[in-house]
Structure formats: structure tokens, C-alpha cells
Write the C-alpha cells for this entry.
Amino acid sequence: MDELRKFKKYIDKHWIESKESALKITMAIQNSELNAGNGNYTRTLHVPKFFDRDDKARFEHIVEQTYAIFRKVIVAYRSDARIRALFPFSKELEELILLEPQYPVPIPICRIDIFFDENMKDFYFCEFNTDGTSAMNENWRLNALLELNNAYTALKPHVEVLELMETWIDAFLKTYHETANAKENPNVAIVDFLEKAYLSELYQFEDRFRKRGLVCEVVDIRDLKYDGTRLVSQKTGTPFDVVYRRAVTKDVMEHYDELKDDFIACVKDANVVLIGAFQTQLVHHKCINQVLFDETMRGYLTKEECAFLDNHMPKTRDLTLAVANEIVLQKDNWIIKPKDSYAAKGVWAGCDLDQHRWAKVLFDFVDKDYIAQEYIPPFKSENIDLVNHDHWMMYSNLTGLYTYNGVFAGVYSRMSDSGIISTQYNEKTVATLFLRGNQD
């Protein structure tokens, strides 16, 4: 909070200069890969998010505890039909999840999104992102653009920046090289349904892999062909040794018949290394919030792990008619979400709606694969959007803990003045910095 006060004092004292600085940053974003066109570009605020060394240690501990639970869920799913029955997966998806990965790490990449109270140092989970984990480049670019931030360059805070692009490539290659018959220089395919993909980031990764001397291509997953021994790009003829999967499982399963003879067949034959394997869906799907409270699942967890979940997991229930009737007059206490989605698509927070609209939305989604979840009021902190406003505002915070091969790697900081923190709900993304001690 001391850094925020310093920034606020400096910005207020250098108002015109700060407004000009904010405009330069916005123009730089618009002229960068963070501009997707049609007015869709990353919005930011003028004060970065600062955490200290104790916060960093706290995040490392949260990741360690959470990842240990994830590992147990995967082991239990593989060995226990009772656990498999807790998940609403098709036989086809269950078969893919049960495929043994060719590497020992259960989830190569994930982002654990939490509501972190910066005063109390406590938190609640928001959701877990495995399939399609993104925004690493967004994080990198916003940190790079701090050189245009007048307050940052004047105050020169003593900070550590946790870079997320090169470190993910390091983790990705480490995972690949733990597989049998790994090549020193593998051909890498970055795959997604390109009409849905965060393309600018995928091409940034492609460029960085290539700068390491590797063959790398961004490929639409439907353009991968399987010749019985190799997975090959239909457009370039490039054979691939390893796949970086950005295509989320939900999208893969919606196109299952289209993919089953090529991409899926090759994965089943273990003729390509898939990072990450489909077992990541066990954590990505929002039913995990309920599975972790099931007594059968809890038989696999320690008392300490159960207490950890009890203290930090919001209450989650299937959105049935009975539940809707129970919570309809408690709109500010609940949020509803699709069970298997991403980017906050289809998410509604009662606090953002009037009573009539909340009741309509709530009953519209009864028995339609939705959950109702206890709404956790996010921690609010002061910041300023100097491009659009002339006053300071309180913003809700969401803290994303990137986890590479089970280890904390960095933070994605998002802020919003609405109840839901996502791009479609007035999200702002800010650079994240960790304060160093005087002895560092």
C-alpha cells in the first residue's frame, strides 16, 4: 500500500504529465500485438500491482498445497470408479482422460485464479484454468511498457519482475525432455481452433520457440493429419514431435468426430507428446468445486488438505430449480457459471443485476449445466484510468497464480469496477511487480 500512496501522490502532483503518459501507453498498446482490432485491445490502469516478498511466499505455498490436491484427484480418478462417477464426462472424454501422459508431471501449466485480500493476506479460490491458460504475453508486454509510465520511471521502485513467456517455454521443453525418446530439438505444434484462439499470443510463442532454433508452427487443430506414425501439418507438411495444446477440452469434444481419425488417433497411439494431456480437464471443469467436497474424494485427502479447502473454496451447487428458488432473493450473495467454459462466458453475478434481471437469468439457466456459487466480494484497491477519467476509483482485484510444472511462476493481475472480472466485463489488466527488500 505504501507504493500506491507514492504513486497517487506523484500522479496528483504531475497531473498533465501523467495524463500524457497514460495516453502514450494506450497508444503503444494499440500499436502492439495486444490490439485485436475492432476496438478490442488490452485496457490498463496507471498504477501497477505491487506485492511484497511475503506475498510471493504466500502464493508459492498456495500453489504447492493446491497442486498436491490436484495430483491426488488425478490419481483417484484413474484408480477409483466411484471418483470417475462424480464427473459428468462422456465415455469418449473419460477414455481420453485415462490416457497415460508420456511425462510425470500431472498438469504442466495452469493458472489458479484467487480473490486475494491484500490486507488480511487471506484468499478464496475463483477458478482453475488449465486448458488454454493464456495472457502470459499480455503480462510481459504491460511490464515492458512501464518504461512509458511517468510515475514508474520517476519513482524507480526496487522490484522483481516474474517473466512468464520464456519461463513457460523452459518448463514446456523440460516436460518434453522427460519423455522417452525425446529429441534434442523437437518440432513443436501450437494448436487451437484458430477462429477462437488468442492468436497474437500464439504467434509470440511461435516466434520465441523459433528463436531457440526449433521448428514451430501455430496450427489449427483440424489441419493436423495422422499418417499412422506421425502428426503432420496438412498445409506445410511439417511433422511434429510435441504439441502445445491451447485448444480447450470442451471445444475438442464438440469437434470429436472431426478430430478422431487424426489428432485424437495420434494422441491415443502415443505418436506425439501432448502437453497437456486430457487429464487436465479434471481440474479445469467447474464440477471440481463440488467433487472436492465429496466424502469419497475426501478419503484421498489429509485432514489438513480438507481444512484448506473448507477455508478457501466458495460453496458451489448445481443450478437446479430448488436451488434457484432458494437463492433468487439473495442475488448479492451468488454468481452463476457454466460448468465447462472459459473467459467468463455466460457468467452472471447477482450484484451486477437488478432483482428482475437476476430472477430471469437465474431461472433461464436452471438445469442447463450451470452451477450457483457463493459470491466472494473481491478485494478492492484504488487506481486510476487516466485515459478515460479524471478521478481515482476503487477496483475489484483478481489474482491469477501461474503454475508451471507445479511451481509458482508469476501473477496475472486483473481489475474491474463490476462484480465480474473479465474482458467482457470492463476488465483492466495491470503489470505485476514484486518489491525487493533493501538487502536484495
Summary: The chain has two domains: 2-287+379-435, 315-375. The CA atoms of residues 87 and 419 lie 29 Å apart. The mean pLDDT is 95. The two ends are 20 Å apart (CA to CA).
